[in-house]
Amino acid sequence: MRWQGGRRGNIEDRRGMGGGAIAGGGIGVTVLALIGYFVFGIDPTTTQQVASQFGGAGSRETGQVGTPEDQAGQFVAVIRASTDDVWQTRLEGYKSPNMVVYEQGTQTGCGYGQSAMGPFYCPADQTVYLDLSFWQQMETDLGASGADFARAYVIAHEVGHHIQTLTGASQQVREAQQRASGEAEANRYSVALELQADCYAGVWAKNASAASNGQVALEPGDLEEGLRTASAIGDDTLQRRGGGRVVPEGFTHGTSAQRMEWLQRGYQTGDPASCDTFSAL
Ligand SMILES: [Zn+2]
């Protein structure tokens, strides 16, 4: 992926802050376990147990805001600016999310966030939280070695959840889930939301080059790399890797085939209107 010449955006760097003080009650922990349950397939009950040990949202931490000097931080700053540049032209009334990089754990508007959850978006404070050590884990677990587009896809997917907060799709899904007849139906809504975020990541990828005069652009092989990542994090594949049977009712993110399909659809059309995963339910 080409990105070195891209515009740098501001991110908040909380690395080296040691996870911060842990305070407060359990409010927000459950919310975090559900909505914070990110792209990359850790069982939400595990997340919840881990989060419970730490209690809920406490005093807000603040890191340095700007462009970090290290390579990984710069990459996030460029992808952040690129997603802003694309969505400003694609969504009327677009407002940037905040973006925080952290290590190990940090306070969030949705409770205590930590590395085990992978990247996630918190609607309460409209912030994308990224633990960069997760990228190491991606390489080890998913074989996404040196894969900068795979990383960008993860960030763009989380920004996709921010778009869903702005459009009201997230809120509609939560309401529909409350009316749902059972867990299987509620999970289908989660899947639609996740696949739409994948499609939005594809929309970003398609428009990144035009929005940056070619400074941020996919190179040959990048889309395939993104599709391999999308495949590796499908619910069915993750369930198999976990040694279990594949149980479609338990899916919350979509199968490997679905995730690849929607990322590709967003990329082919470049148009968020093509990302209506809800009609496809
Ligand atoms: Zn997601």
UniProtKB/TrEMBL annotation:
Pfam family, one: Zn_peptidase
Keyword Methyltransferase: no
Keyword DNA damage: no
UniProt subcellular location: Membrane
Bilayer disposition of the protein: Single-pass membrane protein
Chief location of this protein within or outside the cell: membrane
Coiled coil feature spans: none
Transmembrane annotation, as ranges: 21-40
One GO CC term on file: membrane
Keywords attached to this entry: Membrane, Transmembrane, Transmembrane helix
Protein name per UniProt: Flagellar biosynthesis protein FlgM
Organism of provenance: Brevundimonas variabilis
Organismal lineage: Bacteria, Pseudomonadati, Pseudomonadota, Alphaproteobacteria, Caulobacterales
